From TrEMBL:
InterPro entries, alphabetized: Man6P_isomerase-2_C, RmlC-like_jellyroll, RmlC_Cupin_sf
Pfam (any one): MannoseP_isomer
Domain Mannose-6-phosphate isomerase type II C-terminal: 49-160
Protein name: Mannose-6-phosphate isomerase type II C-terminal domain-containing protein
Biological process annotations from GO: polysaccharide metabolic process
GO MF annotation terms: nucleotidyltransferase activity
Coiled-coil regions listed in the entry: none
Source domain of life: Bacteria
Organism annotation: Mongoliitalea lutea
């Protein structure tokens, strides 16, 4: 199994090879961490990882908040939803699972391998789940309120393994 340091180095190398600028990183999340890509590169990021999506229809607030999520083996992000954004995730390395539901009860679990994508609606409950090795996920947000774009505080946690 790969180590956290190795997976972050791989993600940073991939972003550099693709010409993306990492403006922030967080390696201290209990489930793994993330890399934030320069918003000015959002169109190129969306084209690289989500070429089938209509980029202009996604840009309600002129932002996509591109990120790379790195989820550790057998770790789960909180069971959560958002008031001001929808999200699109694409597994770009490894395998992940995603629990989703339109209610507060976890129900369906989808398994994604490299190249698979999932679209999460505004308000849809969801949880990213690590499998047997690290998973790497490209993420963009569809901000649903142009005058008040979503941010990291726009998370309603219904359950969290880490007591947040």
């Amino acid at each position: 199994m790969r180590q956290k340091k190795e997976v972050f180095a791989l993600a940073e190398k991939l972003m550099k090879q693709l010409g993306f600028i990492v403006i922030k990183e967080d390696r201290d999340r209990p489930w793994g961490g993330f890399l934030v890509i320069d918003e000015a590169q959002a169109p190129a990021f969306a084209h690289q990882f989500f070429p089938e999506e209509d980029f202009e229809s996604l840009k309600i607030s002129k932002k996509l908040s591109p990120k790379i999520l790195l989820v550790a083996p057998n770790k789960r992000l909180s069971w959560q939803y958002h008031f001001r954004r929808a999200e699109i995730w694409k597994c770009i390395d490894g395998e992940i699972a995603v629990a989703t539901s339109l209610t507060d009860e976890e129900s369906e679990i989808k398994h994604l391998k490299e190249g698979d994508k999932i679209k999460l609606q505004q308000g849809e409950r969801h949880r990213l789940i690590g499998k047997s090795d690290w998973g790497m996920v490209a993420e963009i947000w569809q901000h649903t309120d142009a005058s008040h774009p979503s941010d990291e505080n726009d998370i309603v946690r219904l359950q969290d393994d880490f007591g947040r």
